[in-house]
Amino acid sequence: MAQSVTHLLATDLDGTLVGDEKALRELLMYYSELPYRVALIYITGRHKESAMELIQQEQLPLPDILITDVGTEVYSGPDFVRDEGWKQRMEASWEPERIAEVAACCAGLVPQNVPAAHRLSYTVWNEHPIYELEERLQSVGIPHKLIVSSGRDVDILPPNGGKGEVLRYVLASRGWERARILVAGDSGNDHEMIMLGYPAVIVSNAQPELLQLPAHPSVFRAKHACAGGIREAWKYFYDGIITDKRTNISTR
Ligand code: GLC
Ligand code: MG
């Protein structure tokens, strides 16, 4: 992408960017009126087709980068070509057959029917099978990362997968680390990226696992839900900062 990126929103979709139609339109209008472009990274638990469907359905702007499957797949716009470097990292230490075998022994884990190469996802109705699965995976020494969202979705990823690791990788590989960044999320799978140290927002409608996190100086708790919370946080962190597009020097 030839265009330089000075400002960047890295956001989850369901329950964060999407969920309040009016607030979403207001956020997009607000961004369109700023004197700089805000680049977009969507980071979702959905798989690629499902994310694309949502983008169409909600008439979301196409992102610069689409990250799907809980941070295990990266696609770069405008053609959304798969990032092979990230794919290799995901495959370096990934044993899905062994994980599936272990999971099959834990009663109460219902496999989600998702076409994903680098994650195994399950639904649970209570937390007992999650403890059992984690214990069994650890005792047989299978490298993995287990993430629980909304007390219901259990994702098992390669150990270096997840929304935090992938965002760090994308920002470093594109040279965007020094952009003014806002990270936004609402549930467990967003925890890692919210805690990266970049300005971040937990929207007011977030799941208990995020609402219960201890206070942190880079994490803003929005009073508004979904896109309204993103707009509130953008104003909190960046309103009043004018970046001269030619020199890239910011003044307040
Ligand atoms: C999305 C995905 C689901 C995943 C969940 C939590 O809802 O569709 O597969 O388990 O996010 O990451
Ligand atoms: Mg969400």
Topology, element by element:
Blueprint: E1 7-11, H1 21-32, E2 38-43, H2 48-57, E3 65-68, E4 73-76, E5 81-82, H3 84-91, H4 96-104, E6 110-111, E7 120-123, H5 128-139, E8 145-149, E9 153-157, H6 163-174, E10 180-185, H7 191-194, E11 200-202, H8 208-211, E12 219-221, H9 226-238, E13 242-243, E14 250-251
Parallel strand pairs: 1-2, 1-10, 2-3, 10-11, 11-12
Antiparallel strand pairs: 3-4, 4-5, 6-7, 7-9, 8-9, 13-14
- Give the second-level CATH assignment, the architecture of the largest domain: 3-Layer(aba) Sandwich
Number of domains: 2
Q: What distance lies between the first and last C-alpha atoms, to the nearest angstrom? A: 28 Å
Q: How many strand elements?
A: 14
Globally, the shape reads globular
Explain briefly what this protein structure is.
This protein has nine helices and 14 strands. By secondary structure, the protein is of the alpha/beta class. It has two domains: 161 residues, Rossmann fold (3-Layer(aba) Sandwich), CATH 3.40.50.1000; 64 residues, Hypothetical Protein Ta0175, Chain: A, domain 2, CATH 3.90.1070.10.
